[in-house]
Amino acid sequence: MAEAPLLDVTDLRKHFPVRRGLLRRQAGSVFAVDGVSFSIAPGETLGLVGESGCGKSTVARTVMRLVEPTSGSIRLGGADITHLDKAAMRPFRRQMQIIFQDPFSSLNPRMSAGDIVREPIAFHGIAQGRAADDRVAELFEQVGLRAAQMRLYPHQFSGGQRQRISIARALALDPQLIVGDEPVSALDVSIQAQVINLLMDLQRQKGLSYLFIAHDLAVVEHISHRVAVMYLGKIVEMADKVSLYRAPRHPYTEALLAAVPVPNPRIKRKRQLLDGDVPSPMNPPPGCAFHTRCPYAEARCRVEAPLLRDVAPGHIAACHRDG
Amino acid sequence: MDTPVLDVRGLSTVFFTRNGLIRAVDDLSFTVNRGEVLAIVGESGCGKSISALSIMRLVPSPPGRIVGGEVRLDGTDLLALDEAAMRDVRGNKISMIFQEPMTSLNPVMTVGAQVAETLTIHQGISGKAAFERAVEMLRLVRIPEPAQRARAYPHQLSGGMRQRAMIAMAVACQPQVLIADEPTTALDVTIQAQILDLLLRMREELGTAVILITHDLGVVAETAQRVVVMYAGRKIEEAPVDALFAEPLHPYTHGLLASVPHLASLNPDAAPAERLQEIPGMVPPLTNLPPGCAFAPRCPHADAQCRAAYPPFEARRPGHAVACWHADRLYGGGHG
Question: What is the least distance, in Å, from the CA of B90 to any CA of chain A?
Answer without folding.
Answer: 31
